[in-house]
Amino acid sequence: MSATTTAPVAATPVRTTHQPPARLRAWATRAPLLPALVFMIVVTQLPFVATLVISFFDWNALYPDARHFTGVDNYQEVLTDPDLRHSVWTTVLLTVAVVLVSLILGLVLALLLDRRFRGRGFVRTLLIAPFLVVPVAAALLWKHVLYNPEYGLLNGLLHYVGGPQPDWISNTPLLAVEASLVWQWTPFMMLILLAGLQSRDNEQMEAARVDGASDWQVFRYLTLPHLRRYLELGALLGSIYIVQNFDAVFTITSGGLGTANLPYTVYQTFYQAHENGLASAAGVLVVIGSIIIATFALRVVSSLFREEVSRA
Amino acid sequence: MSTVAVRTPARRKGVGLGLVAWVIGIVFFLPIAWMALTSFHSETDAAKNPPAFGASLTLDGYRDFFGTGGGASPWPALINSVVASVASTLFVLLLALPAAYALSLRPVKKWTDVLFFFLSTKMLPVVAGLLPIYLFAKNTHMLDNIWLLVILYTSMNLPIAVWMMQSFLAEVPVAIIEAARVDGARLPTILARVVAPIALPGIAATALICFIFSWNELLFARVLTGVVAETAPVFLTGFITSQGLFLAKVCAASLVISLPVLAAGFAAQDKLVQGLSLGAVK
Question: Where are the transmembrane segments (chain B) (predicted)?
Fold first, then answer.
């Protein structure tokens, strides 16, 4: 908080006519940055350090006096307990399935929208809409309005063609969660890939066409290589968001029927079971997973970023 | 536009693909359209199978949702959401603008490293710090306090805002700023007269995107609030378990609570990609 007040004070020397010492000037340049930097470190990094420390303790909030250091026991338990291990697997399955399917659908839609046709802007707006529904509301929509076996829209439409009337969530719980997430995340992928398509070099494409390249050849040898980094970016950012998903799992299945992913498990372990140490260990595992994805993501972002900077 | 005479096979293929795009667009939008329609149906019509597309319209679902038909009023939750989203967005702007300035117009040394530090904090999942934050809030009696969410939402959106604004401020040509400085303009004048007009649309889009993310957030709100400070998404979780015939009410609630996001999202449509890709894509 004190950093906030130093900003305007430190900024004054820059504008005075006599030159202040170089060191002071360097700090004046840094000053506007400090409040944001300090704030981020305090609010995001400190709690993580605390999580890390707690993860080495056997600590149930209901028995605070029994708290003691246990080393890596919590990690061992997370990785050996069948339920917790299952949630690690669910997290991987959920993330990979949603990212892959929405990326492919997003690519198809981006290619379609890259062409000129009547009402293109309107169709684009229709396609963005699912992403702009509050996640809990979207999950409720799928759970009650679409999936409900008695009066849901899906079975309603099946009724017209005399199809079966399955109980979607009970029969295929994880698939049900994934479908709702694919619906929400396809627009995200589409937008990123569309931006990628529109940054293609038109002259190069024209030249290829003049030389007699077919649509498929243009796509395979020009478009796809150009899109590679946008595909990577979409996949990585999507993974970072979906690894953390809580809303859909919480709303559609409440973590039941084998759909509990790690974030849901962390929530449940400390909020309902009050196992602080165990929850922290699971939390640290989510972070490790995210760091692995993030390392790649940062590399892609930085290569796109360098290109932007050098182009400017 | 096109006459029959110029319709080559390629052109026909183009029309066909346009049609495919239309069909997929409608399929994607269908759940939302159905939600909107159902929200205006009576509860008995809403629960019909096969669906009652042409059923008569009523506002009962909305009356029910706003509590005039009994049940908890959503207003406190809606107001909490407005406070949390608007206040955190303002704090984000307050912190991000000077930071973005120090990373673009008057860059510090190693400014890309700083930029990437901000980005890396965004990749730290919420569950990484959830428990300590909960324990801290409990011990300082900050649980169920909307301002705790304001602080957390600020930290959640600050990295995105710094990235976006950095890229918007970097678009301001240095030559113009230099020219103004030579003409004797001081920093506040330069910021207000030269930088602001160019960067303002971007700053507005950034604010809208931060607003959306705060409005949508569930996990922090669910864990850290109770009766007093519950937000709109937490209010919605009350509909997770079925309560008899309540489909029209659920649809009305989901639609009303999503409206601010839909509005903000469409308003920021052009800059949405840039925000979502953390400024990496323009």
Answer: 15-37, 82-103, 115-134, 146-169, 190-214, 220-239, 246-268
Q: Are strands A57-58 and A68-69 parallel, antiparallel or unpaired?
A: antiparallel
Burial class (CB in 10 A: 0-12, 13-18, 19+), A312: exposed
**Minimal C-alpha gap between B2 and chain A (Å):** 11
Phi and psi angles of residue A71, each rounded to the nearest 5 degrees, phi first: 65, -135
Model pLDDT, residue B242? 78
> Is B83 or A88 the better-scoring residue by pLDDT?
B83
Give the whole-angstrom CA distance, residue B30 versus residue A300.
35
Instruction: Give the H/E segment covering residue B82.
Output: helix B75-103
- Both tokens of B71, joined, read 């049940």
- Give the helix/strand (H/E) hosting A68: strand A68-69
CB within 8 A of B211, min separation 6: which ones?
B85, B86, B89, B260, B264
As a three-state string, the secondary structure of B128-165 is HCHHHHHHHHHHCCCCCCHHHHHHHHHHHHHHHHHHHH
Q: Which of A163-172, B76-85, B101-110, B112-121 has the highest mean pLDDT?
A: B76-85
- Mean pLDDT for all residues in chain B: 86
- Give residue limits of the domains in chain B: 2-65, 75-277
- Give the global pTM: 0.87
Chain A nearest-CA distance from B164, in A, is 12
A254 in contact with B, Cβ within 8 Å = yes
pLDDT in tens, B230-274: 999 999 998 898 777 788 999 999 999 999 999 998 888 878 877
**Sequence-distant (≥ 6) Cβ neighbours of residue A67 within 8 angstroms:** A57, A58, A59
Structure tokens given for B222: 């669910």
Structure tokens at B1: 């536009």
| A243 close contact with B: CB closer than 8 A | yes
The verdict on a CB contact (< 8 Å) between B102 and A51 is no
CATH architecture of B75-277: Orthogonal Bundle (1.10)
Q: Is the Cβ pair B261, A144 closer than 8 Å?
A: no
Contact A33/B114, CB-based, under 8 Å? yes
Buried b (16+ CB within 10 A) or exposed e, A238-267: bbbbbbbbbbbbbbbbbbebebbbbbbbbb
At B76-103, the pLDDT tens digits run 999 999 999 999 999 999 999 999 988 8
Please classify residue A163 by burial: count the beta carbons closer than 10 Å to its beta carbon, then call 0-12 exposed, 13-18 middle and 19+ buried. Answer: exposed
> Maximum CA pair distance of chain A?
86
Which of B126, B131, B134, B254 would best serve as a mutation to test chain A binding (most A beta carbons within 10 A)?
Answer: B131
Compute and round to an integer the Cα radius of gyration of chain B: 24
Selected residues 256-285 of chain A with any CB under 8 Å from a CB in chain B: 262-263, 266-267, 270-271, 276, 279-280, 282-284
Per-residue b or e along B250-281, where b marks 16 or more CB atoms closer than 10 Å to that residue's CB: bbbbbbbbbebbbebbeebbebbbbbbbbbbb
* ipTM summary value: 0.88
- pLDDT tens for residues A219-264? 888 888 888 888 888 888 888 889 889 999 999 998 888 889 888 9
Kindly tell me if the per-residue pLDDT of A3 is higher than 90: no
Q: B17 exposed, middle or buried (CB, 10 Å; 0-12, 13-18, 19+)?
A: middle
